[in-house]
């Protein structure tokens, strides 16, 4: 997959809430990986968060906030989907 042309999708409880592309990142994927590898060893399976594209919850009308029990999915085209269930802070 071309790191300059990947689609990033976020879903909350199956509803698409964000969609963007790596071509819109301020820093390229190779630049981000190089920067991170300067201060920590990276291994297969590591996840690097790049920030959030347009559509973040507090800017929605009405605002959209995650709550315990919600399911968050973050997908990168050609790579896969990371699925997490939101838990209450204990």
CATH topology, by name, is: Fumarylacetoacetate hydrolase, domain 2
Class from secondary-structure proportions: alpha+beta
Specify the number of helices.
1
Overall, the morphology is globular
* CATH class placement: Alpha Beta
How far apart the termini lie comes to 39 Å
Helix content: 10-25%
- The count of DSSP E runs of length 2 or more, i.e. the number of strands, is 4
Low-confidence stretches: none
Series of H and E elements: EEHEE
Strand order of the largest sheet: 2-1-3-4
Q: Taking Cα atoms only, what radius of gyration do you get, to the nearest Å?
A: 14 Å
Question: Main beta sheet: strand number and arrangement?
Answer: 4 strands, antiparallel
Domain module count: 1
By CATH, the architecture is named Alpha-Beta Complex
Beta percentage is: 25-35%
In CATH terms, the superfamily is Fumarylacetoacetase-like, C-terminal domain
Question: What's the rounded overall pLDDT mean?
Answer: 91
